[in-house]
Amino acid sequence: MGNKAIEKELLPKSQGLKKEVIGALALGGALILGYFVLIAAISITEETTHFFGENEVVINDLEKVSEIIMRELTSNPENFLLVLVIVLFIEEFFFRAFLTTKIGIIPSTILFTIAHFGYGSIAEIIGAFFLGLILAYWFKRNNSIIQNYFGHLIYDIFAIMLYFIFA
Q1: Most distant CA atoms of the chain, gap in Å
Q2: 55 — alpha (psi -120 to 50), left (phi > 0) or beta?
Q3: In a 3-state reduction of DSSP, which class is residue 155?
Q4: Cβ-based burial of 127 (10 A; exposed 0-12, middle 13-18, buried ≥19)
Q5: Of 21, 105, 111, 113, which cross-links 136 as Cys (Cβ 3.0–4.6 Å)?
Q6: What is the pLDDT of residues 93-118, one digit of tens each?
Q7: Would 25 be classed as within a structural domain?
Q8: What percent of the chain is modeled with pLDDT above 90?
Q9: Other CB atoms closer than 10 Å to residue 106's CB: what's the count?
Q10: What is the pLDDT of residues 75-94, one digit of tens each?
Q11: If you average pLDDT over residues 139-148, what whole number do you get?
Q12: Which residues touch 50 (CB under 8 Å, ≥6 apart)?
């Protein structure tokens, strides 16, 4: 496979500014809607206490994620934002443009979820799985890394603002 074929496969041609912007906004909205649905489901689930042996399992443990994000954001905001922009591009390029096209939606989503284990949060892992499913499906359907990147960025900025407001 030549360089042009690889480039065409991994970096699909732009679909035009209007379509890319509308797609990114729609995806960002879908991800934010998914966030609220997931939070509602977690809250309902949390109403019924789960026990495994002697230990209570808390599903809504997003304070772990909030602490990490707030520590990083307040210690070096410029670096945090730069890393966010770069990491999001790498995530979308690797997990969607590369893995989703090579191994499919579910396997790439599982790997995306595993990549989010570092926060140590059950809610983050559940959220990463559903977010990854939406992102992988969207990429497969629209073949646009641009829509995925900016939709994911919109979602992450929204989530960070919520962490900042409720921290």
Answers
A1: 58
A2: beta
A3: helix
A4: buried
A5: 105
A6: 999 999 999 999 999 999 999 998 88
A7: yes
A8: 49
A9: 13
A10: 888 888 898 899 999 999 99
A11: 94
A12: 56, 57, 59
Specify the length of the chain in residues: 167
pLDDT value of position 18:
94
Of the candidates 89, 103, 90, 98, the one whose C-alpha atom is nearest the C-alpha of residue 12 is 98
Strands (E), 45-147: 50-52, 55-57
Phi, psi dihedrals of residue 56, rounded to the nearest 5°: -80, 135
Q: Which domain holds residue 124?
A: 17-166
Residue 3 lies in a domain: no
Residue with tokens 């893995």: 99
**Which uninterrupted H or E stretch holds 92?**
none
User: Are 93 and 10 contacting, i.e. CB atoms less than 8 angstroms apart?
Assistant: yes
Cα end-to-end span (Å), the chain? 50
Considering its fold, how many domains does the chain have in total?
1
- For residues 24, 146, 134, 4, the Cα torsion angle rounded to the nearest 10 degrees is 160
Q: 106 vs 100, 111, 116, 129, 148, CA distance in Å?
A: 8, 9, 16, 9, 17
Nearest CA among 8, 12, 5 for reference residue 147: 12
Within a domain: residue 7?
no
Whether 149 is in a domain gets the answer yes
